[in-house]
């Protein structure tokens, strides 16, 4: 069977053939080469230049191996592989950087919905006339699933629960790849997990994905890795400041009626378009490009805020207009220009007193045949789910000359 050998920085040589190869060749999948997996994290971790393309291939590779380990049928295995390969197909520029903008400005184009539209052929996100063919490629093979099955699986809606869990669960192929890959390319040793062991201890039991009791340590190790990567990499305050600056540049452009198709673009195109706009967007892009970033004036933890203050900030987190208004008030108070003070939040759950525990809890199959939730079997899982957030809840940043004044006035301006 002819195919292609792809040399991956993590897994070495991977052979792709058939349907997977045809999907990899599509313009939509090739576009992912130009979208950085970790957004602007390369400004803090210079090695973090890996792309959604590599990660998607990595998730496919783990899905293929997991299918063999748990004994999926050929059709189910292929459905999981295609789902893993295409799970990020709808990502816009800089991956998660513009998350708040999708929510407020272009709801229908967040990466989950856009992914679904691409897989169902409703949209051609690329400038290539060969785009839009993913559904017909899937249908041209004689497997027992449709493009809609793939789209449903990616949204976590598949009727076979274990398939959904393998792509969106406590221990899933997406997470396994990004933890290993992100740790490798950032050089942060926290993300190292025992992939070989994990693949051996996952099982299907009563229609659910479970972990064998013998494999609890491997799952605990993965959860520790995930928790530390969140605080050390994904929510590093300097990364958040850079992302906040670029987000403000794009918000400014959208408010002026520009760049409404940003979600189609790749990373470098967004930067070029924003820079062409002059004014605040151009200045922000130049600052990001040459790493002349704003400085953190405030890094407050949830414990430092009263319940009332948390409520106020949660409202600002949920409402872009409210956040923009607070930023303007802070800028006025310290004599800065609009856009020179940014307010960022870590995960909103942190703002509430009790982080919401994820519902996709993986179960443990005990030696006596009983099944128990992971948190019942290991106290570490509970502790880690609570720790999943970084030490700061609220971040206020600005050019360094405004930092001392901001530290004095921020509480009064926001909460009075």
Automatic annotation (TrEMBL):
**What superkingdom does the record give?**
Archaea
Answer whether the UniProt record assigns the keyword Transmembrane to this protein: no
Pfam families linked = HD, HD_assoc_2
Q: Which InterPro entries match?
A: dGTPase-like, HD/PDEase_dom, HD_assoc_2, HD_domain
Q: Which BP terms from GO are recorded?
A: dGTP catabolic process
Identify the keywords attached in UniProt to this record, alphabetized: Transferase
MF (Gene Ontology): dGTPase activity; transferase activity
- Matching CDD domains: HDc
Q: Which residues form the HD domain?
A: 52-179
- What PANTHER family does the record tag this protein with? DEOXYNUCLEOSIDE TRIPHOSPHATE TRIPHOSPHOHYDROLASE (PTHR11373), DEOXYNUCLEOSIDE TRIPHOSPHATE TRIPHOSPHOHYDROLASE SAMHD1 (PTHR11373:SF4)
Please state what the protein is called. Answer: Nucleotidyltransferase
Name its species.
Answer: Thermococcus siculi
The uppermost taxa in this organism's lineage are: Archaea, Methanobacteriati, Methanobacteriota, Thermococci, Thermococcales
